Amino acid sequence: xxxDYYEWMQEGFNNFPDKKSIVMNDENxxxxxxxxxNFPGGFAEKILNLMGFTFKGExxxxxCFLS
Length: 67
Description:
Blueprint: H1 2-15, E1 21-24, H2 29-38, E2 47-50
Parallel strand pairs: 1-2
Helix pairs in contact: 1-2
């Protein structure tokens, strides 16, 4: 089972766009996070644009979402 997961992540990493900026949206968000977690070095010096809904709890300030 673990080998299947690794193969799935490796395939996803190989198919991830080789661009300076990567857009993650509701279609690729969870798999994208898994790929970044498993292959962090492959995303060094890249810009990640997260598109979609963000939950803001009371303990977070609005400014933490601004870049």
